[in-house]
Write a structure and sequence with these properties.
Strand 4 and strand 5 form a beta hairpin. The protein has a single domain, classed as Beta-Lactamase (2-Layer Sandwich), CATH 3.30.450. The longest helix has 27 residues. It is globular. By secondary structure, it is an alpha+beta fold. Strands 2-1-5-4-3 form a five-stranded antiparallel sheet. The chain contains nine helices and five strands. Helix content is 52%, strand content 19%. The relative contact order is 0.16.
Length: 187
């Protein structure tokens, strides 16, 4: 990822924002996105964290996504688009094979051959520290960075989700400060 893309991501402080590739590997995330997706980043995956592996292989994913079946099925359809665009991408083929072997829902939905890309919509999260958040998302394909997508999440100010997003920002700041302090204490 080019440095200007990373700087833009870091400058987005009021909304959770992350950059993923066509394999659904999270290549970069701002602190608010890391806080929103805390269960995924804490899942113990070897970096880069992969949202497909979290969605289909982590037992906490079904509780994290309130509409898990809809989120998961849409993710499979988007992965099918990525596979069609990148038929010789061995790591992508390996990911599809891994998910097919280890997840019955993935295998079923993959066989359905649904193909579509969701560029915007609403996702409902059950965040372990904040509670339920209904967040609107936008997916921006980065034309200067082939196969990279910038995802942002927002909520209408003054709503319970808007208030929850502000609370999440405060939680993210306190966790970032605590993590930085712990690092300093061990140095």
């Amino acid at each position: 990822m080019r440095a200007p893309v990373r700087r833009v991501l870091e400058a987005m402080t009021g909304v959770p924002a992350l950059v993923r590739d066509h394999r659904f590997d999270i290549l970069a995330a701002n602190p608010l996105a890391m806080a929103l997706y805390a269960p995924m980043f804490a899942s113990g995956q070897v970096p880069p964290v992969n949202s497909m592996r979290f969605t289909f292989l982590n037992p906490h994913a079904q509780g994290f996504y309130a509409d898990w079946a809809q989120v998961a099925r849409s993710a499979v359809a988007a992965l099918r688009v990525a596979a069609a665009r990148n038929p010789h991408d061995e790591p992508l083929v390996n990911l599809i094979g891994e998910l097919s072997m280890r997840s019955d829902p993935f295998r079923t939905w993959w066989a359905a051959q649904d193909v579509y890309v969701h560029q915007h919509g609403t996702k409902r999260f059950h965040h372990p520290a904040i509670g339920t958040l209904d967040l609107d998302y936008e997916a921006f394909e980065l034309l200067g960075e082939p196969a990279l997508t910038l995802l942002t999440y927002s909520a209408e100010p003054g709503t319970s989700s808007g208030d929850g997003l502000q609370l999440l920002a405060a939680w993210a700041t306190s966790n970032t400060d605590a993590t930085a302090q712990a690092r300093q204490d061990t140095e």
